[in-house]
Amino acid sequence: MKELNTIGRYWKKKYGEKVYKIPISISGFTCPNIDGTVAKGGCTFCENDSFAPNLQKEKKSDFKLHPSNPQNPMLGNQLLQLQTQFENTKETLQNKFGAKKFIVYFQSFTNTYAPIETLKALYEKALSFDNVVGLSIGTRTDSITDEILDYLEELNQTKEIWIEYGIQTVYDSTLKKINRGHDFANIVEWIEKTKKRNLLVCGHMIFGLPDEDQEMMLKSVEESLKLNLDSIKFHPLYVVKNTILTKDYTDGKFTPISEELYLDTLVKSIKMLPDNVSISRVTAGISDDSLLSPMWCNDKHRQMYNIKQALLKEDLIY
Ligand code: SF4
Hints:
The chain has 318 residues and is an alpha/beta fold. The chain has eleven helices and eleven strands. It has one domain (2-317): Aldolase class I (TIM Barrel). It has a seven-stranded parallel β-sheet with strand order 2-3-4-5-6-7-9, sandwiched between helices. It has a two-stranded parallel ribbon with strand order 1-11. The structure holds iron/sulfur cluster. Iron/sulfur cluster (SF4) is lined by residues 31, 33-34, 42-43, 46, 48, 109-110, 140, 166.
């Protein structure tokens, strides 16, 4: 039996205790793939509130950040949101699990797609909270700059700085189909630049993208690992209401991945990982009625049970 290098085990080894990720959603952030800079409508599966529970509780505003506009009248409000979300989640984690150390996770939308002054204010505020050991910043490879990377490299001298990039697939044909707005060459270019600065990179992969078979999914993992990722997240593609994918699904043009194929692809992918690449996530789902398909994605506990069992059959402990 072999214990897998999960991100939880990686942090426990590094800090001597469990580290908890606190997801943050700051209103005003958007995405170049939504605001028309790269495309409109976003990735075909994107309905951002579906993975941003904190955002739904915030009063939404029409103001949207853009990297070329240094004016940010919302900054005070954004800093307050950050503090409130952090304190609330921290309290829950402390009461439930006795949590002591935290990583602040800028999760929703594209969290480097803003003027650098705004990014600095938010990141430095997050790092100033007690017992925060680092940041994890979710973004796109077409929304990062040398200036931001240089700045994050400085932060990384004293704190642990992760950049989470959506890779999803290495096939340009698929990236086009999902309206991603950039190609794989862009992913390679910016992950290489990020790694050159010794920042930690977590790559997100999606299984079950339109017209991809298992060979393509595994090839995507294999090619992505060549970029020296430090961690990896795996997700199945599921369809939620009010997305571009909804129409393809209801028109019969898109069939979601089966749980059997997902499990088999996941296990094969995990067996490909070098020991130094930690696993940050092995599935995703949504338990409310916004989920259209596949229905096996509606119960996270059952998904995790099935994944752990499938890995155990290979003598792997998740
Ligand atoms: S990059 Fe993320 S936020 Fe932007 S459209 Fe795609 S899924 Fe949505």
